[in-house]
Sequence to fold (468 residues):
Amino acid sequence: MTRFIYSDSGDTAQSRLKTRNAMGEDVYEVLLSQIISLKIAPQERISVDSLARELGVSQTPIRAALIRLEAEGLVVKKHNVGYSAAPTLSARDFEEIYEMRMLLEPAAAEIATRNMNDTVAQRLQQAHDRMCELESEQTKRSYSKFARFDAEFHAIIAEASGNSLIVDTLGRLLTHTHLFRSRRHSAVTREAVSEHSTLLNAMLRGDAAGAKWAMAEHINHSRERIVPFTEAGL
Amino acid sequence: MTRFIYSDSGDTAQSRLKTRNAMGEDVYEVLLSQIISLKIAPQERISVDSLARELGVSQTPIRAALIRLEAEGLVVKKHNVGYSAAPTLSARDFEEIYEMRMLLEPAAAEIATRNMNDTVAQRLQQAHDRMCELESEQTKRSYSKFARFDAEFHAIIAEASGNSLIVDTLGRLLTHTHLFRSRRHSAVTREAVSEHSTLLNAMLRGDAAGAKWAMAEHINHSRERIVPFTEAGL
DNA sequence: ATTTCATATTTCCGATCGGATCCTGTATAA
DNA sequence: TTATACAGGATCCGATCGGAAATATGAAAT
Fold:
């Protein structure tokens, strides 16, 4: 079912290629991508030994990865019962995420605008352009691609604010946001791209207050685009 | 050296008392308290097997606890080398923490004031009173007590904002803040208590804007109280 | 005395084993 | 038919073992 990252039957599979560096690290990466791509559905059980069999490793690195993922809120553990992917965000969780984004991101955009330089401007423009392309060739699939670029766009702004704490915190929030969205794949990406454009323009012309306002508007609209879906399932 | 939480020699120590629920959980708690109380100094090595011997448990729960602590930024791991307590915050880290607190806490105070009810008011008053007492009996020790109450005071406000994300994020920030402070034990607690008083008054009379402002002032002053120390050590 | 190389120790990390707990399903009785 | 109890299976969790990597130790040579 899932991909094999290590030979499951080879005798000296791992002794061959350059002595692996971090085994549990790879397991973590695989699990993370499986969760954010929804190959593992929310609330789906994640059995340690079956995963160990599938990936061809022992239970130890699996546990390590699951503990990390639990600390990040992507899986939940019930003692002596098992692990499972975190449940879909409730409407309440959702409000909390947007409330917090509203506190962090406009300020980050404001600061980033004041710190603006050519490198950052170029990276922002590039991320924005790729989303525009994605928008124009518009097949119905590839919300996941859009999500990746959107996350990158917001991450660049957070980084440009110069505060690594904001980068980390926002990274977590965006992961959950997109996890939520891709379940309902509300493909209203056009408006998002347009709002990004407004924001980017403000930042590029050094209008910090305008960037702050544009980011706040963007987050509010983003929230309103999803609200209709928040009560639907579950 | 450290305290023993499980009998290290008893034959059926754990089968006796009500079948332990979560062993790694306890190890986590012990390690956490050792780190925030600085019994384990920043950058001090934390060996898995020596800890296992000291606590009388195997390496497995130790590893689990360390992985969790690493995810929370309280310990750092070097592959195939070992774990160690996180280094003391740099002046830069410190600025980042305060920058983020300035984004979150005034807003939290504002919202909490609008949501104010008797239970919360009582808890706030109680936490505040205990800090006043601590201030008046003023022995030079017990910054750690002050830190605990201060964290509680701010945590109550965060909880009252109704946003659990803010609660969690702020909890982490406060841990690091106090970790930093207790190293330099700058015992300027009197001003803090006075500022808390101003903030509490605003909240209790339902002045949301005033509470927001008071919190912002409090954080700014708190930061300024520590800034002189940020360049000193290391 | 300093440098270099080889050895030994420390430590992590993955593998595996056994026990304890919880969940599920079936059978029996009311 | 429904509810309860018991048995079986699945799973986590802690313990222990062995190997690999990195660091520390010490000896030898220049």
Remarks:
- Residues 1-19 of chain B have pLDDT under 50 and may be disordered.
- Chain B touches chain A at residues 21-22, 63-64, 67-68, 70-72, 79, 96-97, 99-100, 103-104, 107, 163-166, 169, 173 (CB under 8 Å).
